[in-house]
Description:
Number of helices: 12
Number of strands: 16
CATH class of the largest domain: Alpha Beta
Strand content: 15-25%
Structural class: alpha/beta
Number of domains: 2
Strand order of the largest sheet: 2-1-13-12-14-15-16
Helix content: 25-40%
Amino acid sequence: MMIASEQTFLQPPEVVEAYQRRGYRQKETLGESLRRWAEAFKDHVALTDHRGEMSFAALDRRADRLAGGLHELGITAGDRVLLQLPNGANFVALSFALFRLGALLIFVLPAQRINDLDGLCRNAQPVAYVCKDRFLGFDYRAMGVELVARHACLRNIIVDGEARQCCNLDGLDGDPPTGVAPRPTEIACLLLSGGTTGTPKLIPRSHADYAYNARASAELCGFSSDTVYLTALPAAHNFTLACPGILGTLSCGGRIVMARTPGGDETFPLIARQKVTVTSLVAALVSLWLQQREWDDSDLSSLRLLQVGGARLSPEVARQIGPALALLWQSDGTM
């Protein structure tokens, strides 16, 4: 597998320079982007989850302190880290902390289990695994302990919740390291392919190209500081993270509302209460939402745009979305 120390640049320097001249790529990392957003939007609410609200400035500070704590654990530039957390502020803050360290995030969906992670450990040789203690009845700590027993590369299990013998995420707090400065052209994260042929493949994305992906998508979808984006799908999805998703919303000064699960029993009240304007779903969930709207009377009038990806909707289902939910935006199916 290609890692950062073997190939810093994903594209030839002349291509990178051409993209920068045309304004497609900014000369900043994703960690630096958050710093700029925090300076611009300060005390505006950046995200809301089941625990409460967090401002842009607070998110920036939390990312810095987490970066310091992770650095004290020995996580440095080029290290791979498996991140498997449900939707919440910790997912976002930890992602930016690792971006600032120059570590390579591997975003793992909450539904993925030992077979997928075993293959990822063999291929990517991560030094740490970050997980929830339990979520929807599954014990991620136990899976982490099993992974450590199988793979000598894993030095740390970091747990959000009851850590037991593992490292507690809430205890990670340190001064941000000095002299750590990843470059925009370096790899920021490794996205997972669909895994239809076995273990998911790793797709490298640089800071500059992933930021452009989110920013251009946000412009295309008309995002602004008034945007309230609901993360109904797992935040680890490329669709939810940067199409425009979390990164695109934050880049505009908008607000993220993070649902733990995508079902209407949780998301419909959130849309009504938080005045959500945009969300993203896969086609199968659209049908479930439409079925629930037959008896649900939540006020979804704030929702102006529903992005659908992963598969093309049938014309019959697509025609129902406007009257029942919102304006439809069908993606090209890539996630």
